[in-house]
Recover the amino acids of this structure.
């Protein structure tokens, strides 16, 4: 009798061991739940964060915009503003975007969509700001075109360009700006500003400004 009881106990232990192995195997094969810290984009890849939009921002050529229609995925998507300032949207066609705030463009698209949708609802999201640029030329380490996505001073821009070269005339830097009233120029003395003097020369740059370092 004792021999039979021992055999049954061993059989139960063996069966429980098999169940435990099976549960461990299933748990290992189960997919991990998605984390809340990364949200997938339309293609399944993590969505890129939208850029910070300056308060003075208006849409310009080369900017990338997301136009999202509620319950209308075929009409939604990302568009690039063309050099002529227009964007092309499915069904609606061409819409002038350059020179508008995103909210104003949203209202314009909504009005155009009303001709095709009974309950249109659309959002305009700024994906990339490529139209706001400054130009740095002359005696700097890396002259070229630089984005101006947010506030930036002359000193900060020169730092982006790698600083002044060995032969730069640091006392006679000029900032050129085109305005509706004509061309403007501003003087910038790098040595003074770097020493904390004449800080009013370290102006906030505007899109289209050119820094000339002789």
């Amino acid at each position: 009798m004792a021999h039979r009881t021992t055999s049954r106990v061993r059989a139960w232990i063996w069966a429980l061991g098999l169940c435990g192995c099976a549960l461990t195997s299933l748990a290992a094969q189960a997919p991990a739940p998605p984390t809340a810290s990364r949200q997938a984009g339309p293609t399944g890849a993590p969505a890129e964060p939208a850029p910070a939009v300056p308060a003075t921002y208006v849409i310009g050529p080369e900017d990338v915009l997301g136009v999202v229609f509620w319950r209308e995925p075929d009409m939604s998507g990302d568009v690039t503003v063309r050099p002529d300032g227009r964007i092309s949207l499915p069904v609606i066609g061409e819409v002038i975007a350059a020179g508008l705030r995103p909210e104003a463009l949203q209202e314009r698209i909504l009005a155009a969509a009303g001709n095709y949708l009974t309950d249109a609802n659309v959002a305009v999201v700024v994906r990339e700001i490529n139209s706001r640029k400054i130009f740095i030329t002359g005696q700097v380490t890396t002259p070229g075109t630089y984005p101006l996505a947010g506030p930036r001073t002359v000193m900060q821009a020169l730092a982006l360009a790698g600083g002044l070269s060995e032969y730069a005339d640091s006392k006679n830097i000029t900032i050129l700006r085109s305005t509706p009233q004509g061309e403007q120029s501003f003087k910038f003395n790098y040595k003074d500003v770097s020493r904390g003097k004449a800080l009013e020369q370290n102006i906030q740059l505007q899109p289209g400004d050119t820094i000339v370092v002789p």
About this structure: The longest strand covers residues 122-128.
